[in-house]
Design goal:
Blueprint: H1 4-8, H2 14-24, E1 36-42, H3 50-69, E2 74-80, H4 96-100, H5 120-134, E3 140-143, H6 144-149, H7 154-162, H8 164-172, H9 177-180, E4 186-188, E5 201-205, E6 210-215, E7 218-223, E8 229-231, H10 233-244, E9 248-252, H11 259-268, E10 275-279, E11 282-283, H12 300-306, H13 309-317, E12 324-325, H14 331-344, H15 350-355, H16 357-361, H17 375-385, H18 390-400, H19 410-427, H20 438-452, H21 460-473, H22 480-491, H23 499-506, H24 508-519
Parallel strand pairs: 1-2, 1-9, 2-3, 9-10, 11-12
Antiparallel strand pairs: 4-8, 5-6, 6-7
Helix pairs in contact: 2-3, 7-10, 8-11, 10-11, 13-14, 17-19, 17-23, 20-21, 20-24, 21-23
């Protein structure tokens, strides 16, 4: 009999494919540091966005997959490049004028515009950690500022001074001629203004571990150690890999052209380049890349206003090498597909279970779904029932599933609350009811008559077959035009639930009454909600 661990060694699920690549690094001997190190990087130039969460979530999935196929211990580091200079003021934060006065200062030297933390970098780091802790990630947080100032990075910085010419050769080859004239891999922190200086370096003294440069006509010399100098971001990437002996890091497609640079600098500094994984970018509703400084797209808090954490993890698992549009309308589909996969999991083979997203989302401890009513159905129920609270929805849910209650089905109860909020904010404002045409009217009159004569149990499949038969009898071709008419006339939407299930949930008499109201013009003219 195939065990899960056996299946993991051949699974085509992308977390296992990546985990096997990491394991291959140590097929001859275990790591000298005693563990395999996974890393994610974060630039706290703005409030953390949902893509940052996705990076940690996906890396965690690979880490857990690795732990299934290997007994080597693992660690995950979330590294914040908070010593980076603030190049521009984000659009979505207060005190814009104050922040402009601190441009080019390290983010941990810029005052917090929210007034909660000791710096803007500290605020954004705290937001990131809060988001990650919400999802229960196991990680270690490292601040670049602390990393530089504490001396943990000193050995690598001194080696960078020693290998300065080699690093510059790599970097200059990647730059335009104009940029080459002023570029240096070292960025001094001004002793007078505290700003990160993008100035040419006049001299690097590897023996003394210092750099010499001009600031406003004055020649200055600073040690590269102790947080008085930082590396430009591309050299910093590779230097960090070398300093920490990173084994795996993933990043967005916008970094992919720089990968050879990161790798080569890591090797120049005596490190071994890690395994890396490039994922496609997240897009907002207009197809634009999500940006921390613009604050476009969905935030983690916004997603969690309308759905549970697992649905977001499900969205992140799906096709990481495909660009994803992230807006509020993806939430209902993610919720329902996640629970479909939960329900399928117990009856799957080990191979199928390892390919199932819920295995990776839940770290192998897959729960049982209590969503006896799909999220999309709850949205439609909220639409036609005019329910203003969960109690109203539960009146319908109990008739459909008498065994269910908020106490026995807490996930469903939570989803009912989410559905009401989502309906109020997104569905209700955009509903557009229309009147039926003559063919649709006759079909809906027929459907109402068949519902009135229905004397069988409210079985979703039997009701679906009956609705299907009405459409065929009235010549709808293709039949999806019939269901589209039902959604547009009765629900004010272009798409909707499996209609037989909706009738079973909402009620046969209630659905007949809804049809009669629509045929009387009470929905299309807006006289009824």
């Amino acid at each position: 009999m195939t065990t899960l661990r056996d299946a993991a060694m051949t699974s085509k699920a992308w977390p296992f494919e990546e985990a096997r690549r990491v394991l291959k690094r140590y097929e001859k001997k275990d790591p000298e540091k005693g563990f395999v190190l996974f890393e994610t990087g974060y630039g706290p130039s703005g409030l953390p966005h949902i893509g940052t969460f996705g990076e940690v979530a996906r890396t965690t999935m690979i880490r857990r997959a690795f732990e299934m196929i290997s007994d080597i211990p693992t660690r995950l580091i979330c590294f914040s490049d908070d010593m980076d200079g603030m190049r521009k003021v984000p659009d979505n934060v207060p005190q814009q004028e104050m922040l402009h006065q601190h441009l080019q200062k390290p983010l941990t030297s810029v005052p917090d515009p929210f007034g909660r933390y000791d710096s803007f970098g500290g605020h954004n780091n705290a937001m990131l950690r809060r988001f990650l802790d919400t999802f229960g990630f196991e990680y270690e947080f490292i601040s670049a500022t602390e990393f530089y100032k504490s001396g943990r990075f000193d050995e690598t910085l001194l080696r960078a001074a020693e290998k300065y010419d080699q690093i510059m050769q790599v970097m200059l080859a990647s730059l335009r001629e104009e940029r080459q004239q002023t570029y240096s891999c070292f960025l001094p922190i001004s002793p007078t203004t505290g700003r990160v200086l993008y100035v040419p370096i006049k001299h690097v003294d590897a023996a003394a571990g210092t750099i010499t440069f001009d600031e406003d006509g004055q020649e200055l010399t600073l040690p590269v150690t102790g947080g008085q100098v930082k590396l430009q971001w591309k050299p910093d990437f590779g230097a960090r890999w070398a300093a920490l002996d990173v084994d795996f890091e993933m990043y967005g497609k916008d970094h992919s052209t720089n990968t050879p640079i990161y790798d080569r600098i890591c090797e120049i500094l005596g490190g071994r380049k890690p395994e890396h994984f490039t994922y496609e970018l997240f897009l907002d509703q207009h197809g634009q890349k999500i940006s921390k400084s613009k604050g476009n797209g969905l935030s983690i808090d916004e997603w969690l206003t309308y759905a549970a954490t697992e649905s977001l993890s499900y969205f992140m698992f799906q096709k990481p090498k495909t660009a994803k549009r992230m807006y509020f309308d993806v939430i209902p589909k993610a919720v329902d597909e996640y629970h479909q996969q939960l329900r399928a999991f117990p009856d799957q083979t080990p191979e199928q279970q390892l390919a199932n997203p819920v295995f990776h989302i839940n770290g192998g401890q897959v729960p049982v779904s209590d969503m006896v009513v799909p999220f999309q159905m709850l949205l439609n129920l909220a639409s036609v029932a005019g329910a203003s609270g969960k109690d109203g929805l539960w009146g319908f849910i109990r008739r459909y599933a008498p065994e269910a209650s908020p106490e026995t089905h807490p996930g469903l109860d939570q989803a009912a609350g989410f559905a009401l909020r989502y309906f109020k904010d997104f569905v209700a404002p955009s509903r557009t009811f229309r009147a039926p045409n003559e063919i649709e009217r006759r079909a809906m009159e027929d459907l109402a008559g068949r519902l009135a004569a229905w004397d069988q149990p409210a079985d979703p499949e039997a009701l679906q077959s009956m609705v299907f038969a009405v459409g065929k009898d009235h010549g709808f071709e293709p039949l999806r035009d019939w269901f589209a008419a039902l959604y547009q006339v009765l629900l004010g939407a272009d798409q909707g639930p499996r209609f037989g299930g909706f009738v079973a949930l909402y009620g046969i008499d209630e659905t007949r009454g809804l049809i009669e109201r629509a045929l009387a013009g009470e929905l299309a003219d807006g006289t009824a909600t």
